[in-house]
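Sanity check

After download, print the first record. It should look like this:
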Amino acid sequence: MRRTFPAIGTVHLENAITAHRAIYPSERLEVTARPRRLRSHPKGRLFDLVTEVRAGGELVWEETSTFLRPGGGDAAAPGGGQTFERLPQPGARWDLPADLGRRYARVSGDRNPIHLFALTAKAFGFRRQIAHGMWSKARCLASLAGRLPDAVTVEVTFKKPVLLPATVAFGSVPSGDGYVFSLTSPSNGAPHLLGRSTVPD
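Expected structure tokens:
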């Protein structure tokens, strides 16, 4: 049986990207995307959106985004999400402006109203507009620039939303062949994003 879910009200919980090698501007790419693994969650239903990028038939980049459609949850279902025994100590603070969501929307095309204005975000239960999760991931990776190899997997779990404007704290620490990193509230340490990088097999 097919299911369809509207984009508005669907929550982005996790994202995993694997770059198998560097992609060059001269390459012709084929991009495919498909939903997979509809399953139960305590707060609703989860599904994955899997995107694959190929160059000349070679898989060069892939992504899995996990989304929650709230409503009709199963209390016995697993919640999922990454957890760390200890968060990295924050090493930097970033001041995020109120218009960050609108600026990122112009670049990404993601104009979900929860990211744009306080008024539109309040209609969906938020006190103010919130930062895009993928902006948060990209900003964390920018802080690790030069330390990650061309072939890398980066997984993140989105936790508490970042209400804009905001000040957030970034921290990272080496772990195995990569890093663990976090974006947290500097006032109480509550996590906004937890992530790790590894070298793919």
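If your output differs, re-run the checksum step. Summary of this record's structure: Strands lie at 11-19, 29-41, 44-55, 58-70, 92-96, 152-158, 166-175, 178-184, 191-198.
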